[in-house]
Fold these 4 entries.
Entry 1:
Amino acid sequence: MTHVARVFRSCVTRSLLIFSLLLVPFSLFAATPLDINSATASEFAAVMSGVGTMKAEAIVSYREMNGPFESLSQLTQVKGIGEVLVTRNQALLRVVPLDGNEEMTMSDVEQ
């Protein structure tokens, strides 16, 4: 094996390792949709596509100031969160109401 081939193979192997380690936070939350009434800013940032630290903190701040969310569509009231962003992440999110009896999903956004 030539030196160039060994370097290339080493780079590919390391890249794949780094890529798989970066996906770990996403895979931790992938099995169960994220409850927007209990999620932390770091969970929002790790799970939601298009949501970084600033938007995630805005969601948590909004929830702290206005109380728990009643539907996913209410996320659009948070500055920087639009309908497209909510729709893009609909499969990753859920709302567990205060009574805990019924889970709301994206169909509630359409109402």
Note: The chain has five helices and two strands.
Entry 2:
Amino acid sequence: MAIIKLYGSKHATCTRRVATILHELKVPFELVEVDLMAGEHKFPAYLEKQPFGQIPYIEDEGFILYETRAICRYIAAKYPASGLIPTEPKANAIFEQAAAAEITNFDPSASKLVFETVLKPIFYKTAADAAVVEAQLAILEKKLDAYDVILSKHRYIAGESLTLADLFHIPYAPLLAAGGSDIMTQKPNVAKWYKELIARPSWLAYEGGVTTTTSY
């Protein structure tokens, strides 16, 4: 049986998010490295599979899928026993609510902060824009106030069980610390939740970069 092929870059945030979900579910996969520095993601052969020229995408026995969160949902749906996507209607609605909160309330500021404080210095040899950092930290702090209220009521953001909505927050949440911010540990309930997420074996497995994983 063919294993899933993950086309991406081993150090890229979205590639690692997909790999984390694959590891969480113990799904074997092959990483097919895409050379971003050479612009391979803009080559015609790549654009045939991913018309936006972004990473990653997967190939599962001929089935092609791109967009990180869609890929993660597909994988979790193939393995429903994991519970990463609840199926009971009300639980599923709360899950979708939590997933929407991640992409609309957490990701915009977190991703901008990671770009400014981590990616710009490494890849563009440019210092972070202090004004952008200050503004985005202020926005994110207010968002995390709401997270702290949510997490005061239950262990995870969609209830008492881990879901994709929690895992979607990595890798950006840990990278905020790499950029010099302790914002994820300032609020007690957020800190407890965050520390549990980054201690998961699925996250720790790829600290040195995503690699092909065929056994667990």
Note: The first strand starts at residue 4 and ends at 8.
Entry 3:
Amino acid sequence: MTVITPKLTLERKLLGECGVIIALDEVGRGALAGPVAVGAAMMDAAGVRRRVPDGLRDSKLVTEKRRPDVAARAAAWVQASAVGWASAEEVDQVGIMRALGLAASRAVSAIAAQGASMDEALVLLDGNHDYVSRVHSSPLRVRPVIKADRDCASVSAASVIAKVARDLYMAELHESHPAYQWNRNKGYASPEHREAIRRNGLSPFHRASWAIADAPTLF
């Protein structure tokens, strides 16, 4: 399989129209347990002149062993980074798309708190649907791009930063709920996770509206 190396081609073009780019990507959308997380990475005109870190890819294309190192280098490479969260309870209360919007809005706000000028910002969002604008408290310029996590280096950075943060969170939750093996499946619908739900029922960290023992594997 040919692995595409993300570049800064689109970011350079977009920075002709804005002052900064805030790249967003989500992880945990299809999990049965745990939060959804949206990574954010800020890129400016100076940043796009810097070399893309070796090994940076969409988080799904980086091995689990290598992800922490790649995420650390990605965070050092971009001008600012953050992760926004929405809990399993929020997913159940408002649905997955609005929960993604809440997490994305929180990530954008965290970037703004680090000094980003939102008047000059353009949000580069992986996917084909803008789930953040209707949730965020102030107007945003949002550009959804299909496969941005694969093709755009700033979005790849956001992806791997979010993935490592969420995996660490799920490994920490495993300590208090070891039956579900979240240190291994990270809350997704693996066979061992489904079997643990059958035996033990749901934990407070499960998405109660989703966590069906016979749900299909989603990763």
Note: The beta strands are 20-27, 36-44, 80-86, 121-126, 142-145.
Entry 4:
Amino acid sequence: MSEQPWAAEQPDRALPSIFPPIPPAPPKRRWPWVWAVLGVVLVVLAGAVVWLAIDTSSGEPPVQRAEETRVTQVKTIDGHSALDLPVDWRELPEDYRGENAVLTYGQVFQERYLMVLTDEKADFSDFADYEDTAILLMAEMPFDTPKVGQPTPVRIGTREAVRYEVSGVFEGEPCVFWFTLVNGERRYHQVITWTLESRRGSAAPALEKVAATFREI
């Protein structure tokens, strides 16, 4: 089956806006701006998942091409970090970027997506505090009965990190997210990857491999 252009590449099609309400803020948090900004990001992520699932549902993903096995370094827009992405990954349209996201890319026909958020260490007392704030947000994701898994300690390069799996149903579409929280040398980072539950088997290893390439520069 020939590859079809996605909405961002079709000038006569407008991008949809399928977004649920922004989740409420948690009580008496010391950094309400963190909640507000990340809350908007997650609403954007959820909307992107649903639209992209619909937009690519007309056919199976194309057969893996040779360029999908090659990678290239992609720097975040703030210039503080980078990842190695397969060359067929594309930057997502502006409508699907959170306002404090420093990188938002996807492998659209495989329904694999990635977003990087970066925060200043001065805004948190320590990495545990950063993790607690992120957990509160995960529990309020705009899904039907979101489920937050147990933390898994990982190493991203030489840096301490922890990964959470968050699953749920949005607009009838089961989705799964992985939040990798990285204690960088100079900043804290969230490497967020996601896919449809139906694509978990093939997407999870590929997304984990991409997340593992994250590094500060």
Note: Helices lie at 32-55, 127-139, 200-211.
